[in-house]
Amino acid sequence: MIRSCLFIPANNPAMIQNADLFGADAVIFDLEDAVAVEEKDAARSLLREYFKVFAPAARVFVRVNNAPEWLLPDLEAVFSDKIDAVILPKADAAACGRLREALLRLEKERRISKSIGIIPLIESARAVLAADSLASLSGVVGLMLGAEDFTADMEIERSKSGEEISYPRARIAIAARANRVIAVDTPFTDVNDEDGLASDAARARALGMSAKAAIHPRQVEIINRVFSPRPAQIEWATRVLEKSKAEKGVFSLDGKMVDQPVIERAKTIIEKAKRYKLL
Amino acid sequence: MKNALDRHVPAGFTPYSGGIDKETLRPRIHKRPAVNKKDKLVSDIALVFDRLKIGDGATLSFHHHLRAGDEVMNLALSEAKRRGLKNLTLAPSSVFPNHKLLAEMIESGAVRRIYTDYLNGPAAAAICGGKMDGLLVMDTHGGRSYAIETGDIEIDVAFIATPCATAAGDGNGFFGPSACGSLGYAVSDMYYAKRKVVVTDYLVEEVENKQIIGEYIDYVLKVDRIGRREGIMSGTTRITRDPVGLLIADAAARVLAAAGALEDGFSFQTGAGGISLAVADRLKRYIKEKNISAAFASGGITEYIVAMHNEGLVRDLYDVQCFDLAAVASIGKNERHRAISAAQYASILENNVADRLDIVILGATEVDTDFNVNVTTASDGLIIGGSGGHADTANGARITVIVTPLLKTRLPVVKDRVVTVTTPGRDVDIVVTERGIAVNPARADLLEKLAGKGLPLVTIEELRDKAIKIAGRPERVPLGKRVVGVVRHRDLSVVDAIYETGGRR
Amino acid sequence: MKKGVCGSLESSDCLITVEAAEKTEILIESSVYQFYGEQIRKVIETTLAEAGRAHVRVSCVDRGALDCTIRARLLTALSRMAEK
Which residue is closest to C10 within chain A, CA to CA? Predict the structure, then answer.
C-alpha cells in the first residue's frame, strides 16, 4: 500500500542518510542509472553498510542493474532483510525468472525468512505487451513504468502531457490490478514544475496506477496527495461501513447499491486513510 | 559568581537573573550635539585624529552596515597604528573577516578591549587564542544601543560610514556608490558618543531622508571609497535548495499555522539564512492562500521580504539593516519601508519593535536540553558569530522558532549543554528539525494548541538522542580556563562567559 | 605503486586512499577531527582488522561521514587496490 517511491542514488551518502525524511512510502536505492559504471562497487558497499545499521521507516526497494555481469554482484553485495523488493530494469520474463531464483537462493543461504519481491520495470514495447504475464510471475509484487526508455524504444516523443504513454499506463495498471499487485507510474522529470507534476500524477491515477516514482524529495508531498483517498471518498467509505454494520446483505446508500465488493472497496479506503494518517 | 543558568560570570558584571528586567532601567545620559559646528569637511584622517585628540586609551566605535566590504574601520585603525596608539577600546557593532588589521592590533596590544554584537574571522581567533588583554563584551543589537545610551559603553569618537552625506554631516545610506540602506546601528553612536565623524565617499548638496543628523556630527571626512561594493552585499540572499532545509521550513510553517499564529495582522521576523528565507516563502504562500496580510516584518530586510511587501502581503517594513540590493533600492523610494535605529528595533529603553513581534524565526549553532541557544561559538569554542538580534527578538517575540538541521557535518546541534549561551532557553519556544519538533515544556499553551494536529512532536531529549544515534557521540572538546569575554543579554546582564579555546583548531 | 581510492569530498562523505606500506599507518584529516577523529580512527582500524589487512597506509579526508560510510569507502578502496 504505497503512493510514492523516492529514487535515491546509492552512491551518495548524504542522500542515503536522509532517504526516509521526506515522507515517501517507499525509497528506491538506485544502483542502476544513478551510479556511474566505475562507481558500482562503491555504491554496493555503501548500501550494504548502511543496511547493517539503519532501518528506514518506509518500504525499501533497490533498483539493480539488468546486465547479467552486474545483477548478481549487486544482489550478493547488498542483500539484506531490510529490503522489501528489487526493481528490475528492462524487465522480461527470463530476467525476472533468473532474479527470482537468485533471491530464493540468497534467502535460503542467508537464512532470511522474509520473501523479497520483484518489481519489473516496463521500459519497452515488448514489456508493455507482456505486462499481464510479468505481473503473474511468482515473486512479482508490482509493475513499474519507465517512460523515458519506453518512448526511446518506440522512437516517439516524450512529452509533459503524456498522451503517448496513456496506453502503456492503462495496460500496466490493468495487468497489475488483475494480478493484485501494485502499479507504479513513471517519474515526472521537471522538478520545478509542481503543477505539471500534479496533473501528470492525476492522469496516472485516473488510469488506475496506484503509486508514482519521485526523482526529487519535493515531489513526494504532491504525489502522496494525489494518490491518497480524497476527503469525500473517506467520508463516503465511513458511511458505507457504518451502515453495513446495521444492514444485512445488500443495501443502498445515496441511491446506489452497496454489495460486498463495494464494502471491500470502502474498507480499503479506510485502511489507506488510517495508514496515511488522514483519519 | 554563577548566574541563573549556572554559568560563570566574571566580577564587575551583573549576572543574568532568569529573565529580562524591563522595569528597572538605567537612566539615559544626555545626547551630545556636535561641538564643532563649522568647517566640518576634511579629507585627511590624520587631521581628524589631531583635532579630536584621539590618543592612547580612546574608545572608538563603528557600524557594520558595509559588512564584508567595510573599509572605514581599517582606515581608522591604520591611522591609530601609524601613531602607535595603545590600549584602545573599540565598539564596532560587528566584526567580519575583512577586519584583518584588527587582529594584528589585538595581538600587538594596541587594542585592549572590544564591545561588539558579532565577531568572525582572524580577530575572533586572536581573542580566543587569549591574545587580547581586556575582555571582549558581546552584546545584542538592542543591548549595544542601551549600553551606549546609558553610558555603559562610553564612546570617545564614533566613525560613521555614511554612503551619502552633506558637508554639514546630514546623511543616509540610500544613495551613493557604497549605498547600503538603513544605518540603524549608527544612530545611538551618533547621539551619544562624545565626538562623531561622518566618513563618506559621496558628497551631496542636500539629503532628504536623513538618518544621520548634521547637528550631531563634528567632522565630515571625505575619502575615495568607504567600502568595496562586492563585499557590502555579502552575496545575494537565497532560499535554500537543500531538500532537508526545505523540509524544515515546511515543518516550521505548519507549526506556526497549527499554533494559530498566522492570523490577519500578525508580525514576523526571519533571519537571512537559507532556511529562514524558505520559511518566509512558505509564510507568503499561506498569507496568499488565506487572503490575509501581515502587519509588519522587521529586522534585516531582504529581497524576499520586500517582494512580499510589494505584493501587499506585508503592510509595513521596519528595516534596521538591508541585506541585499533589492532592499537598498526599496528603502530609498518606499516610505512604508522604514529605516529604523537599533534602539527602535530592540532597545528596552524604547517601545521597541522586537517586543511587538508575534513570530521570529532564528537559526542556531547549538541548542541544549534547556532550550538555550548558541549562535556565538562553534562547538570547539571558537567565536564564529554573536547574538546580533537573536536574543533581542527571541526575548521580545511571542513565539520564537528555531529552525536547524539536527546535525551539521555530523555534529549534533541538539545536545546536553551548549558551549556558550547566547539566548537563554526561557526565550526559546519551539525547535524545528528534520527529525522532529520540540516544544519548550514551559509553553503549555503551545503544547495544547499543537497536540493532535499530526505534527512530529518529540521532546528535546529525544532529539538529542536521535542525533547521537545517527552520528555517534562526539568527543567533548575542552576549553581553556581563562575567560576572554562575556555574552550579555538585552539588559546587559551576563548569560555566559567566553573562554580561551583549548588547542589549535 | 598499488593504490586504491574511493569516496568524495562531498558533505557527509570521505575520500579514502589506500596504498601498500611497510607498516600500517592511518592519516586522518577531518572538519570534525576534534570531535570524531578518534572514532574515525577506530572504524578504520576495526575495518582493516576484519578485512585481514595490514601493511597499508590509509589516508582519509573526511567531510563528516558516518561510520558506515567510512567503512564502505575503505572496503571499496581496499578491493580497488587489490584489483590493480
Answer: A14
